[in-house]
Amino acid sequence: MEHATPLQHVDTPDGGRYEWPIDGDTALLEYARHGDVVHLDHTYVPPRHEGKGYGARLVRAALADLEARGLRIVPGCSFVAAYIRRHPEWERIVAQQAPKATER
Length: 104
Fold this sequence. Notes:
Elements (H helix, E strand, L loop, with lengths): L7 E5 L2 E8 L2 E10 L2 E8 L9 H15 L3 E4 L2 H9 L18
Parallel strand pairs: 4-5
Antiparallel strand pairs: 1-2, 2-3, 3-4
């Protein structure tokens, strides 16, 4: 695996992202925070680094950070949702969805 520097958490007023510099490129996990719930919206790994496990490592590190901060997540990104299906131990931090209103 190529050299990767440690994960960096970047917060912005309208949301944020986790950034992971990898050999001159940057892998990203973008999110939007709503109170104590974080919607994980988009994962990106530069094409030349795809298939090397960086996406999974990025998601795992972000989930660990969010859990340590007492936050819950909504896996809005298909990559994050697939990661959680493969690693169901992370379901412990998935926010419960509000029950659907009954039709009358």
